[in-house]
Each structure stands twice: as C-alpha cells, then as structure tokens.
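Narrative summary of target 7.
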Amino acid sequence: MSATIISGTETAKAIREELKQEVTDLLVKHQVVPGLVTILVGEDPASQSYVAAKNKTAHALGIHSEQVTLAKDTSEADLLALVAKYNQDPKIHGILVQLPLPKHINETKVLYAIDPLKDVDGFHPVNVGKMVLGEQCYLPCTPHGILELLLRSGVQTSGAEVVILGRSNIVGKPMANLMLQKRPAGNATITLCHTRTKDMAEHCRRADIIIAAVGVPKLVTADMVKEGVVIIDVGVNRIGMSESGKAILAGDVDFDSVKEKASFITPVPGGVGPMTITMLMKNTVQAARQAAGLL
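Modeled conformation, tokenized:
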C-alpha cells in the first residue's frame, strides 16, 4: 500500500479560486475591497521571501495589498506608531507584522497592539481566547489550513486518536484545541507530545492521525506508525543544498518509508506550506466582511 498524497498546492489553488469569486462579489455588490498590510522590519531573506509571496497572492486575488519595509534599527515606538496608524485606516482590514522581529523590539507588545479585528494572523489574545471558547474569530493560519486539508480530503476525525507533535503557540496548541472542539474536522481525542514526553513512539503507534510540527528532520519513522495512519507533516527543515544552490527540504516525517504504511500523507514541500498564506487571505476577506457588517 502507498498513501494518497494530500496536495496542499492543489487544495490551496481551489480555495483561492473561491476567494477570488468572493472578493469580486464584495466589490460588485458592496463596493468593498479587502485590504492587507504587511510590515517587515529588517532584511531577513526568509522573511522577505515570505512577505513577497503574501503580496503576490493578495494581488492575484484582487485584495488591496500594502507592504512597509523598515530598517532593522527601527525603534519599538516607531513600529507601534505605525501599527496604530493602520489600526485607524479604513482601507486596511488585516495587519500582519512579520516575525521574527529584531531583538530590541518586544514581539508580544507589538502583536498585542494590533486591533483584534485586524489580527488576521490570529495571534492576539482576544482571538486566541475566542478560538478556545469556539467563538467566531480569525483562526491561526497554519492550523486552519490543516483543518481544510483534512476536510477536503475526506479524512474522518470524529472519534479519531490524534497525536500532535509539538506544543508551539503557532501550531501545536491551537491545533489540539481546534480538533477537540465540536466542529468539522473536530471531535477527536487529542494527545499532545513535546520534548518532555517519555515515549513519543508509543503514542504515535496508537494514532489514527499524526500532525508533526517539531522542526526535527525525519523524526517520525515507519516503525513509529500503524498501518492506515493519516500523516500531516508541518515541518520544513533545510537538510542541505543542491548543486544548483537550491535548499533541500525535509519534513518532520521520513516520507519515503512512512508513505508505505499511511493511508494519507502530506509532502514537504507542497503540503501544509501553501495553505498557510491561503488561509491568511481567507482571514483578510473575513475581516473585510466583518468591517462592512456582512457577517
């Protein structure tokens, strides 16, 4: 048996087509154009690439996109003032401050300064609290994307044993919370493993679904999973460079061996990654609808 590949690239493409139509309808029927600003401090190449991809996607969908690039020695006060300015800008429905920030800037203070109604990353404690309570809010983009991958692949989560590897605030914790809720792609029984878990392999062997988000290349091997398991690999690890100078990537799962036992598996690259930016766009459109009183 070889697993069915869950293509994040194809799923993201389908969702973007839906969003493009929604953006067109907002303009034609309500004269509303969703607006997103991305704020980048410094010249980190990975952050620059990610911000460029966000802007390109926004433009392709008809979303108004602005990018502000600040010098790496920009003061915390100046960054907070910029956030406050966009909080008041009616053309901007989503504010995204690209992380990580330089060490002299308090990331928490900056994220908390964003208006929760414009926090399309879903990191503000108001949105985190609403997510935990199951209320309407902007869901964090990567977990939201994973829910869509499971839903659109027909994976049954109700009653399933789900093992999540990693307890980050960006993936592990929100993923666990969302999947235990009474919602589509929810109603699961959750085990959350981390660096102090005594026998991670034993937990994994019990799992119907494994979501790996620890940042350790090929951590999950074939002997750690049961036949028919569903694998969602969030890890993106650079393990070398090709002769052409391109980064060689590996996930947190040993794809080649595990795919022979799994029923479904996401690849790296082309799995969870494309979904994250797509769900950011979905949150931005949701923010525009909310600001216009259309939700």
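The chain is about 40% helix and 15% strand.
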